[in-house]
Design a protein that fits this description.
The protein is α/β, with parallel strands linked by helices and about 750 residues long. It contains 18 helices and 27 strands. Bound molecules: beta-D-glucopyranose.
């Protein structure tokens, strides 16, 4: 830790030096501006600057900006230009006009591919973990780490920002996404994108929209009625995009109500650009462009990674008038104005070595708030340092490190596989829970390890210890879904056997999303750690030993089993279809099945709303998470017009800690939405025995419904139920207010 803080300090100094370099660069730009490049005047508005520059562009230069150069470093043998930084996407700039290249890097949970001549980046905890903190500050920090390291590596655009709603708990990419609830997901990912852009890096939010499962993602038709779509998946994007104003929005592979997302007039133009006023550019997911004229007219602004549709064919379509020049200018304008607005022209990244110590500390901090304590019978946790107890740690490669998610979100953190990770192969990173638990247990403690590969051996080891901590894992990746909610590789049997052998069993889960836990009644402690990131081993030990109070809350519902879900099986995923496993995310040219995923089954009732309407009790509800202390709620007051609510949170236990307080609203009957929905939350530190009064604002939009007749949002007159508490299933404060139509 000491080394980390020293390195951190020197980097702050280096940061100052870089800032002043940046300032020097602005004045160079301004000098040029005084000459024949007026758009280089940083004092002007980005739209005006873009317009001035576009006037000087040739048709070929415009076309050059609206597509990538091909698969580049992603595919062996593909062309890689000299200026390509080594990321997933590259768009050459126009040096004669002072427009830099765009170097795009995947960065869902950290920068994916180390830039040319760089070595590594920080592996952050999963996005779903970050969202479990319900702490906007952690969302911002998450993005700020990504932005900082993109800059350090010479990238100027993130193509991270996973935002799809967790409708399908078995989706292989849920670890890149935030929540089943649009308000939580939108707020946390909005903060993330703001953090990225605070580094003068172009941010992105993806995959727009309804890319809620991987099976068949390249071809499936996601069907969802307009009102439900507006109030769920679209609302999440609307919130995040409104907050962050990201440079990019990446349209997804799938179809949405018939049309591919990247040529879907309704979602790209009518909603994103017109209703929400998005000023940035829409880039396609990699090979998610399917046409030239249709896509261009529907609102796609940049094809990635190649030029099959937006290269020569688009030029021709513009020349023969099928795509108006004004539309091409709009595409280019959106790209160039985003480059000016985020600062990538005036403050280009200056390469320097990534600071892995600072990154690791930030990752640990985020993970400490991400861990969710799901069960703590008899106060088995926190463990007591120095009590000399024999602890056995079992399974999950906990001796080696922590699991990370795969696909384009795979980060090559220090200590990963030499030469980088391989698609489809799980990677564990060196942040060993065993090491940190051993350190924290103290000198008298006996901490041992059993790999958990032989259930009988593990049970024997458990029987000899006073406490058994079983680490279970569920690897997840882009391009696959899990067919069930069960832990893979016989791990349920492992936990059962250990629990039978040792009454003091604690389970730590490293999963990409919700799993079933048939053994939950037979263990004393359960902690969800998600994919914990490079500071994960230490964060887990800090929470197990109570150096840090547990505070995370679930951003998704954990069902008892698949029968409780709106879709008991993943649509299209069966043992015999071709659209399963890694094939689900296959690329162009692969034989794909065109099937429908009917999201109207649950419609607006995503996640906890479905459970409420069906009167089903989940294994663990949305918003649930325990602490080593307890909190009591009182004194609910609602401000006029329900603009905010305030209440008191009292820490009734013996430890200080953070509480996440949640505010839900049930709309008037006429809304026909018979469920509560999250409309606000806050995370508050309360000292042991103390009380705090908190005020949570409620955005007027969250009290509205989408009217398909009016094609807009409206507040209905009637009685609104307001409930407050620490979990969607336990809301001690309740009141009702009458609101007028609006
Ligand atoms: C993924 C995107 C990613 C892109 C580039 C696609 O397969 O869906 O999330 O940004 O590849 O790597």
């Amino acid at each position: 830790m000491k080394i980390g803080s020293v390195v951190g300090k020197s980097c702050v100094l280096a940061g100052w030096a870089l800032l002043s370099l940046g300032a020097a660069r602005v004045s160079v730009a301004q000098t040029t501006a005084a000459g024949n490049q007026p758009w280089m005047n940083a004092a002007l508005d980005p739209d005006a600057r873009a317009d001035m520059m576009i006037k000087e562009m040739t048709l070929d230069e415009k076309i050059q900006l609206v597509h990538g150069i091909g698969w580049g470093p992603l595919r062996a043998g593909a062309f890689v230009p000299v200026a390509d930084n080594g990321g997933a996407g590259f768009v050459p700039g126009i040096p004669r006009l002072g427009l830099p290249d765009i170097n795009e890097a995947d960065s869902a949970v950290g920068v994916r591919m180390a830039a040319k001549d760089s070595r590594y980046a920080t592996l952050l905890p999963s996005v779903i973990g970050m969202a479990s903190s319900w702490d906007p500050k952690m969302g911002f920090l998450y993005g700020a780490v990504i932005g900082r390291e993109l800059r350090d590596q010479g990238y100027n655009m993130s193509i991270g920002g996973g935002m799809d709603l967790i409708r399908e708990p078995r989706n292989g990419r849920n670890f890149e996404y935030a929540s089943e609830d649009p308000v939580l997901a939108g707020t946390m990912v909005g903060e993330l994108a703001m953090g990225v852009q605070s580094n003068q890096i172009m941010g992105d939010i993806k995959h727009y929209v309804l890319n809620d499962q991987e099976t068949g993602r390249n071809s499936l038709n996601a069907v969802l009625e307009k009102r439900a779509m507006q109030e769920t998946d679209l609302l999440a994007f609307q919130i995040a995009i409104g907050m962050a104003k990201p440079a990019g929005v990446m349209c997804s592979y799938n179809r949405v109500n018939g049309d591919f997302a990247c040529e879907n007039q309704y979602v790209l133009t009518d909603v994103l650009k017109k209703e929400w006023g998005f000023k940035g550019f829409v880039l396609s997911d990699w090979e998610a462009t399917h046409s030239t004229v249709k896509a261009a007219l529907a609102g796609l602004d940049q094809e990635q990674p190649g030029d099959g549709y937006f290269g020569a064919p688009l030029k021709e379509a513009v020349q023969d008038g099928q795509v108006p020049m004004a539309r091409l200018d709009d595409m280019v304008h959106r790209i160039v104005r985003s480059m000016f607005a985020t600062g990538v022209v005036d403050h280009p990244p200056v390469r320097r070595v990534v600071d892995p110590f600072k990154g690791r500390e930030d990752a640990r901090k985020i993970e400490e708030e991400s861990l969710v304590l799901l069960k703590n019978e008899g106060g088995i946790l926190p463990l007591v340092a120095g009590d000399g107890k024999a602890i056995v740690i079992i399974g999950g490669h906990a001796d080696e490190g922590v699991l990370s998610g795969g696909g384009s979100a795979q980060v090559d953190a220090p200590g990963g596989r030499p030469g980088g990770s391989v698609w489809g192969r799980p990677v564990y990173f060196p942040s060993s829970p065993l090491q940190f638990v051993t350190e924290q247990a103290g000198s008298g403690a006996k901490v041992s390890f059993d790999a958990g590969t032989d259930v009988a051996e593990a049970a024997k080891a458990a029987a000899k210890a006073q406490v058994a901590i079983v680490f279970v894992t569920q690897w997840m990746s882009e391009g696959m879904d899990r067919p069930t909610l069960s832990l893979p590789d016989n791990q349920d049997a492992l936990v059962e056997a250990v629990a039978k052998a040792n009454p003091n069993t604690v389970v730590v889960l490293e999963t990409g999303g919700p799993v079933s836990m048939p053994w939950h009644g037979r263990v004393k402690g359960i902690v969800e750690a998600w994919f914990p990131g490079i500071g994960g081993g230490e964060a887990i030990a800090n929470v197990l030993f109570g150096r840090v109070n547990a505070s995370g809350k679930l951003p998704v519902t954990f069902a008892v089993d698949e029968a409780q879900l709106p879709h008991p099986t993943v649509t299209g995923l069966t043992a015999t279809t071709e659209n399963n496993g890694m094939n689900g995310g296959g690329f162009h040219g692969m034989q794909s099945k065109n099937f429908t995923v009917d999201y109207n089954v649950e419609g607006m009732k995503v996640g906890y709303k479905w459970f409420q309407v069906k009167d089903e009790t989940p294994l663990f509800p949305f918003g649930f998470g325990l602490s080593y202390t307890s909190f009591a709620y009182s004194g609910l007051k609602v401000a006029p017009g329900a603009e905010s609510v305030s209440f008191e949170v009292k820490n009734t236990g013996a430890r200080s800690g953070d509480e996440v307080a949640e505010v839900y609203v049930t709309l008037p009957k006429s809304a026909d939405e018979p469920f509560r929905k999250l409309v606000g939350f806050t995370r508050v530190w309360v000292d042991a025995g103390a009380s705090k009064t908190v005020t949570v604002p409620i955005q007027p939009l969250y009290l509205q419904v989408f009217s398909t007749e009016k094609n807009g949002w409206e507040r209905l007159a009637g009685k609104y139920g307001i409930e407050v508490g620490g979990s969607s299933a336990e809301l001690p404060l309740k009141t009702e207010v009458s609101l007028t139509a609006q």
